[in-house]
Write a structure and sequence with these properties.
Layout: H1 2-15, H2 19-24, H3 29-32, H4 35-58, H5 66-86, H6 96-115, H7 127-132, H8 150-167, H9 172-178, H10 184-196, H11 201-226, H12 244-248, H13 257-265, H14 268-290, H15 309-348, H16 357-373, H17 378-399, H18 405-429, H19 434-485, H20 489-517, H21 530-544, H22 553-573, H23 576-579, H24 585-594, H25 597-615, H26 617-647
Length: 661
């Protein structure tokens, strides 16, 4: 890990011009945020909001789109300036600092769609999820219902997300400069941005052409598919690629360019873990458990009942997720605490933490100077955190009376330390553990709030902790990017705030676009929202304990929980040659509920990337981000007119469906 990070940082240094010259001609922070940059951020962020929302509501898996956002920002502004220059207008030069601001603002915007709870705890409060969890299930109180509403969702996001922007402001110098944490995603994004602005126009033109070509193909393919999807199980998205028997077990190619593009961005290990989970669940376990109908669960219950097959799907997924999450939570916490202890010990002994620190000091001095010079006053962080925390303590109990004000107060007292631990761990490992901190809060509040209020208090409290911890971690990742691109932290913080504000509006609007146009939350439809039922059942589990589980399900959950822990231990303790082949339990859990089809699509994406790198590695490194972004954005953009057509009650003219002879 350390070797890889050093290589990344070396690339940053090589891609950058001489630091002394760079500092002299750095634009002031007020010039790094531009009108065209904000417009580009709104367009890119809104488009990614729609894409992320679709992935959240269908499969529950969203790739890291930071690098894709940086690429689109570069392509968008570069194309804009070229067109204006050809038209005879004088344009302001497009700098790496402006590129960083657009990327930051766009990522902050779409991150609300990813982590705002639309695919998990917020939809977990809805009546549809309540009914899916079983109206007669103990602990699933009818008082624990709050259907989606545009007004309260926007208000909730504003009060919980903005707190996270201020919580770690006083510690940004400690995390970025003093501890010199790697923050691999932020560093990799800086490498890309610096590379964009140091490469020639020839490479940029290739990326633009590649993006536009595959964007157009993906958009037109989405438009073409629409004509054949007149009903729920019609169209190319239900094509029985491997035969009807395989199709009944969800093994088919979905023809989704979004999933293929996502597979091109995700690592090979993620995609293969998804496929392994699909084979294990839909290829083996569910057919075998289905044969136990009448023995393990009543014969007359439908399969989507929590007392029937669906209960096994949900709770075994929960066991895998909790086993993986708990192991990584403890591991990251241990390494973070150990690293902090060693740093404090070395500081007391006045020792250097790195043998070549003196040689690095000269190279890093200019970056440190820029990062410290554009200081964000301490009072802004403290005052902002206190004000937004007080607003949350007042507003959230009004929105959700089941969550008492003193629970919210305790959450915000604990949040700074939790946010620091999470950001420190992410800086070391690149793992944002915000969801796991949220799950800890979920189980604690479920147990403390009682049967009537436990579900709502747990889900909302989970959202409060998760939002603060996640937003603060994303901000630190972006500060690391700004450190290497020599962008102003003041401008970075303002961009993050603008993006968060835009996201708090566009994310709920994106959600309601799908919510009104499609059957969101239907376990048998396309928009299953798999994590909504998972989170509600985790809350019920916290309220009632294991009595909520179906027959024999507890033993299976024990087994899969142990499997998740064991796989992680083998991965960490065995030699790299063995450890690199260990699957990711969190990824394996997704197909258990959703199905195998999206895993097949994503594995096609990973196969394309693998073969491309074998044939022409240099071209693949240049073009894969552009091609993947084009595939994702093209079909993602088609979702907008498709939703409008659905809202207008305009149905496709043809239903293409297959039947057994």
């Amino acid at each position: 890990m350390e070797t890889e990070l050093k290589e990344i940082e070396k690339e940053v240094m090589e891609d950058r011009p001489e630091k002394g010259e760079e500092v002299k001609r750095l634009p002031p922070w007020t010039k790094q945020i531009t009108v065209r940059g904000v417009i580009a951020s709104i367009l890119i962020g809104s488009m990614y909001c729609v894409i992320a929302m679709k992935l959240n509501l269908t499969v529950g898996l969203t790739p890291n789109l930071n690098i894709s956002a940086a690429l689109l920002a570069f392509l968008f502004i570069r194309t804009w300036t070229k067109l204006l220059q050809k038209a005879g207008f004088v344009t302001t030069p497009f700098t790496r600092q402006e590129n960083t601001m657009i990327q930051t603002c766009s990522v902050a915007c779409y991150s609300i769609a990813v982590g705002g709870g639309f695919g998990s705890y917020l939809v977990g409060l809805s009546r549809k999820t309540y009914e899916q969890a079983g109206v007669d299930t103990e602990g699933n109180s009818p008082n624990g219902i709050k259907d989606p509403g545009l007004g309260w969702m926007i208000g909730f996001l504003f009060v919980v997300c903005f707190v996270g922007l201020f919580v770690l402001i006083p510690l940004r110098k400690v995390l970025i400069i003093d501890y010199r944490l790697a923050f691999p995603t932020g560093t990799a994004t800086a490498v890309l941005i610096n590379g964009f602005h140091s490469q020639g126009d020839k490479s940029a033109k290739k990326q633009v052409r590649g993006f536009l070509k595959f964007f157009s193909m993906s958009f037109l393919w989405g438009f073409f598919q629409w004509f054949y999807a007149a009903a729920e199980e019609c169209g190319f998205s239900q094509f029985p690629t491997f035969g009807l028997q395989a199709w009944k077990q969800t093994f088919y190619f979905n023809f989704s360019m979004t999933y293929v593009g996502t597979g091109m961005i995700c690592s090979h290990l993620v995609n293969l873990s998804l496929l392994l989970g699909a084979v294990l669940s839909w290829g083996l376990m569910w057919p075998l458990i289905r044969l136990r109908k009448g023995e393990w669960f009543p014969q007359n219950l439908p399969e989507n009942s929590m007392k029937s097959l669906n209960g096994y799907k949900v709770f075994i997924s929960v066991a895998l997720i909790l086993g993986d999450g708990l192991y990584n939570f403890i591991k990251v916490l241990y390494f973070s605490m150990a690293s902090i202890y060693l740093r404090m010990k070395e500081h007391r002994q006045n020792l250097k933490t790195d043998g070549d620190e003196q040689s690095k000091a000269v190279d890093d001095r200019k970056q440190d100077e820029v990062f410290i010079r554009e200081n964000i006053p301490l009072w802004i962080g403290v005052t902002g955190y206190i004000i937004f925390a007080i607003i949350s303590i007042i507003v959230i109990p009004i929105m959700f009376p089941q969550l008492k004000w003193y629970f919210v107060l305790v959450a915000y007292i604990m949040a700074p330390s939790l946010a620091f631990c999470n950001a420190y761990g992410a800086g070391l490992t690149d793992i944002n553990m915000a969801y796991n901190y949220g799950k800890v809060a979920l189980f604690m509040l479920a147990a403390l709030s009682g049967r009537e209020n436990g579900v709502v208090a747990a889900l909302v409290g989970c959202g409060v902790i998760k939002s603060v911890v996640s937003v603060s971690c994303i901000l630190m990742q972006d500060f690391k990017t700004s450190y290497f691109t020599m962008a102003s932290p003041k401008a970075m913080f303002l961009s993050q705030a603008i993006g968060t504000a835009i996201g708090c509006i566009t994310a709920p609007l994106s959600f309601f676009l799908f919510y009104k146009a499609f059957d969101v939350g239907n376990p048998d439809g396309e928009y299953k929202v798999p994590y909504a039922i998972i989170y509600r059942n985790m809350a019920i589990l916290g309220v009632e304990g294991v009595t909520a589980l179906p027959h024999h399900c507890l033993h299976l959950c024990y087994g899969f929980f142990a499997f998740a822990v064991m796989v992680n231990m083998v991965k960490d303790l065995s030699p790299p040659k063995i450890g690199k082949w260990m699957p990711l339990p969190m990824c394996m859990a997704l197909p258990f509920l959703v199905g195998a089809y999206f895993a097949i699509d994503m594995c096609l994406g990973t196969l394309i990337v693998f073969v491309w790198h074998k044939i022409d590695n240099k071209k693949a490194e240049l073009m894969v981000p552009a091609v993947a972004s084009g595939l994702i954005c093209g079909e993602g953009l088609w979702t907008l007119p498709a939703s409008v057509l659905a809202l207008a009650k305009i149905k496709p003219p043809i239903c293409m469906k297959f039947f057994a002879p």
